[in-house]
Design goal:
The protein is an all-alpha fold. Helices cover about 50% and strands about 0% of the residues. The longest helix has 18 residues. The two termini are about 35 Å apart.
């Protein structure tokens, strides 16, 4: 957490992301980092209109939703 990722993970990562931080905090744990990245991805997709309309037909959506509810 305080020292970041080891050289092994930095070398083998597909993508490297830097989260800018200000103030006294200079590290984030993995759960906080993940939450920030997922939030930002969702924010950008909403702004781009990616969720304005469903890509599924209503019947297909309903079937998937009902299946999900029973799990």
């Amino acid at each position: 957490e305080d020292e970041g990722l080891s050289d092994f993970w930095m070398t083998n990562a597909d993508v490297k992301v830097k989260i800018p931080m200000m103030g006294k905090v200079n590290s984030l744990n993995v759960s906080v980092s993940t939450a920030l990245i997922v939030y930002e991805a969702m924010r950008q997709r909403l702004a781009a209109g990616c969720y304005d309309e469903s890509r599924l037909e209503a019947a297909e959506f309903d079937a998937l939703y009902q299946d999900w509810l029973t799990r």
